[in-house]
Amino acid sequence: MCGIVGYIGKRKAADFLLDGLSKLEYRGYDSAGIAVVEKDGLRVEKCMGRLDALRKKLKGREPVGTVGIGHTRWATHGRPSDSNAHPHSDPTGQFVVVHNGIIENYLTLKEDMLAKGEKFSSDTDTEVAAHLFATYYHGDMEDAVHRVLRTIKGSYSLVFLCKAEPDKIICTKKDNPLVVGLGEGENYIASDIPAIINSTRKTYIMNDGEIAVVTADGVRLTDLEGKSISKKIYEVNWNAEAAEKGGFEHFMLKEIYEQPKAIRETMRGRVEDNRIVFKELDWDREFLARFNKIFIVACGTAYHAGIVGKCYIEQLAGIPVEVDIASEFRYRRPLIDENTLTVLISQSGETSDTLAALREAKRLGSHTVGVTNVVGSAVGREADQVIYTYAGPEIAVASTKAYTTQILVMLMFGIYLGNLNGRLDSVLSEDLVKGLLEVPELIHRQVEDVDQIKVFARKYGSSEDAFFLGRGLDYAVALEGALKLKEISYIHAEAYAAGELKHGTLALIVQGVPVIVLATQEDIYDKTISNIQEVKAREASVIAIGFEGDTELGKYADHVIYIPRTGKYLAPLLSVLPLQLLAYYAALTRGSDVDKPRNLAKSVTVE
Length: 607
Ligand code: M6R
Description:
By secondary structure, the protein is of the alpha/beta class. 36% of the residues lie in helices and 23% in strands. Helix 14 runs antiparallel to helix 15. The relative contact order is 0.08.
């Protein structure tokens, strides 16, 4: 995710900004920039690439001003480039903003502005905010900021700088983090504490709808109506390293907890009147009718998301789907042509096998849709069309929030296709969309209470093997649960379709072997119960995952982890949570390096 830093005081702002931004590098970014108040106006310097590229650009001509704002961008609207890098200004260069988040109504606003003859120099949603800021400024910066906030919709941390009032910076937030740091004769702004922790531990953690007017001598806080508010100062008691992880012990845990936000961001702008809209696709019934088959191609966790996607698309839209591992697909001469749609899923968008599969699909004449988390990545650039997941950068090697946003996109895609071709019942469609909107809160509830999972992780953490079972969508999620456990705890783990076990693998089930069984699919629930009995008869230790209110599971399993009750299609978004947490705490028990497991890399760019 993008990073924000602001400084106002007596020091050279550029030094502070560059140093602060470097503390946010762990979040991932593709370009960087700063804006500093200089004698002759606001000086904006920005470029694509790492902070070092920006430092090089500034060498020997560093800004000397003592007020400024800075940004590291992680592209969401518009590919990584010099012009899309922040800060963004109005055409006169007198009004400058930096922004994290997404301005949902930017296209409508931009179209109005273009119609009035305004010129834009980037593809970003943020530039619209800079234009609005200029339009609304009539001698009162605070008033202009209020008007901007009344006009834009979406999620944001926004920081404003204006040439006519060079002794203040104004910042605000909605659904994105922002802190204001308090110093002596200087004050600071940041999207995350590591950027300012070397200068102060006294902060205001900003809430949605709060505005801070920051000068060198003080900080005034108001609400959106301009009424002053008072706020408790929060003393940071973490060290810099812990601060990078937001107080979590590992990035993986932080990313597990970020899932409600990742889901919200990925749904943002794609739900209208209880319907799913993919403006980036904009298909009609006729276009969809071209395709008689869909291929989903990916690797690892993304492949598992593809298996979930197959269930969704086949059941909701009635289109046959094949799921393939990219490294197999690329060499197996798949039977595809211009009547096949190929969907490539990749968090990084740079996985070598997935990219080769994408090229092969295109070569064979297939229409390709990339599903990726990284704007400007190779999959994003080369696929005919792209659906972005907005999980924010994923740093831990073990994928968590990327997976949940991938299966979310698969579900939304299934609903979208089913609506388009008329195969999806309208009541079910509406129920699914309504249910989706509740998912972030349900995940939040789950991660609030992890004590039981910690106990199981300690109890079974020393096991050599573990098995994951499920049927239908539960099987698809079981595959991901087993991968999570093996990649970070190094426990040998396998997932099986529960009905398949008796065809061989049952020979491995002996006393005390942990078997994790997912039981969320009502239509095949009884069958799953029979499979639990099968492994219990061999004295396995069964941990079942079922819905709250289920009174049956406890009769057969040794332990039950209850997840909030929801519909069968939404269940994977919730049932994967305990599996991620189980893997995480089991890895802790065994003392492995959770964020950087042995032999693995975050992005596999070699064959
Ligand atoms: O970036 P991608 O989604 O293409 O990566 C694919 C796999 O390498 C990845 O999902 C891997 O399996 C994860 N580290 C598992 O947690």
